[in-house]
Design goal:
- The protein is an alpha+beta fold.
- Strands 2-3-1-4 form a 4-stranded antiparallel β-sheet, with helices on one face.
- Strand 2 and strand 3 form a beta hairpin.
- It is globular, with a radius of gyration of 15 Å.
- The chain starts with a strand and ends with a helix.
- Pfam families: Thiamine_BP.
- This is MTH1187 family thiamine-binding protein.
- Belongs to the UPF0045 family.
Length: about 100
């Protein structure tokens, strides 16, 4: 399963990079395959482990912000591994062809 999520602290002003970095740090320290871009962090693994990472990432932001927004999208496809890489490679192959 791949989960793309975004955690945004609310009520802390415009500069939220430090809070987002705290959440991304939780994801990176999880050891699960992950990627971060300008809008979302994607993490890949089994349901329970991925959701645990998301929960901990939200909690680390929640500890410092009065309110937190979470946007989450999940691709639940049992038996697929390395989807973070293979999905992008497929698109790139089509673009090159």
């Amino acid at each position: 399963m791949i989960v793309a999520f975004s955690v945004t602290p609310l009520g802390v002003g415009e500069d939220v990079g430090e809070y987002v970095a705290d959440a991304v740090r939780v994801v990176r320290e999880s050891g699960l395959p992950n990627r971060t871009d300008a809008m979302f962090t994607s993490v890949e693994g089994e349901w329970d482990e991925v959701m645990d990472v998301v929960k901990r990432a939200v909690a680390v932001v929640e500890a410092r912000a009065p309110r937190v927004s979470l946007v989450l999208k999940a691709d639940i496809r049992p038996g697929v591994e390395d989807g973070l890489t293979s999905k992008v490679e497929t698109v790139e192959r089509h673009l090159a062809g």
